[in-house]
Write a structure and sequence with these properties.
The protein is α+β, with helices and mostly antiparallel strands and about 190 residues long. It contains four helices and twelve strands, in the order βββββαβααββββαββ. About 15% of the residues lie in helices and about 35% in strands. The structure holds flavin mononucleotide (FMN). The site of flavin mononucleotide has 20 residues, from strand 3, helix 1 and helix 2.
């Protein structure tokens, strides 16, 4: 028997990314975002409210980074989603995290997090149904410890957090169970 549960944003799993951007004065703001998705080979879409301090920074500087949150940094990652730079000007400093300017875009890379997707603002989409910030990916940087053969990132080493939209839990990524474009290949013969 299935149960009907009504309307809810029931997609699972969701990523946990920390979006970071400089303000016009050079200060850093960063926020937690779970509503984020790749939308092209060199594009990422963030569904973030226009009134967040980080969003305002992005609109001012035209650049941002998307930092993959990992299990060891769960506390600052969550803090970035609780506090707002609109009311806490030293939010980034209070997080205990550190940043260095991307070599490719005018945005801060948070050094504690293992992977950063460095973007220029490509488009803001504001309709009745969504507010999206679309970034053009200019570079991806990663800690050497999470980079394997052929410069491919090794998911097990990233130790990324997953967000559970149902009960607001954070989860760790589990083990690899298969290979995409291969696990279903046998059924092609049916
Ligand atoms: C787990 C988690 C996920 C979140 N995902 C989003 C999101 O996808 N979009 C959004 O607009 N806000 C999201 N938030 C809320 C913002 O991170 C939060 O409002 C934050 O205070 C904004 O910070 P700022 O005003 O300093 O930029 C999320 C918060 C948490 C804890």
């Amino acid at each position: 028997m299935r149960k009907n549960l009504g309307v809810q944003p029931a997609l699972f799993p969701m990523p946990v990314v920390i979006v970071a951007a400089y303000g016009a004065d050079g200060s850093i703001c960063a926020m937690n975002a779970a509503w984020a998705q790749i939308c092209g080979m060199d594009k990422i879409a963030l569904f973030i409210d226009a009134d967040h301090k980080t969003t305002k920074n992005i609109m001012e500087t035209g650049a941002f980074t998307v930092n993959i949150a990992d299990v060891p940094n769960m506390a600052p990652a969550d803090f970035f989603g609780i506090a707002t730079g609109n009311k806490m000007p030293d939010k980034f400093e209070r997080s205990g995290c550190h940043a260095e300017k991307s070599a490719f875009v005018n945005a801060p890379v948070i050094t504690e997090f293992p992977v950063a997707i460095e973007c220029e603002l490509a488009e803001e989409i504001n309709t009745e149904n969504m507010h999206a910030i679309v970034g053009r990916i200019i570079n991806v940087s990663a800690e050497e410890t999470v980079v394997g053969d052929k410069d491919k990132i090794v998911p097990e080493k990233v130790n990324a957090l997953i967000f559970d939209q149902y009960r607001s839990g954070y989860y760790a990524v589990g083990e690899k169970v298969g290979q995409a474009w291969n696990a279903g290949a046998g059924l092609m013969k049916n």
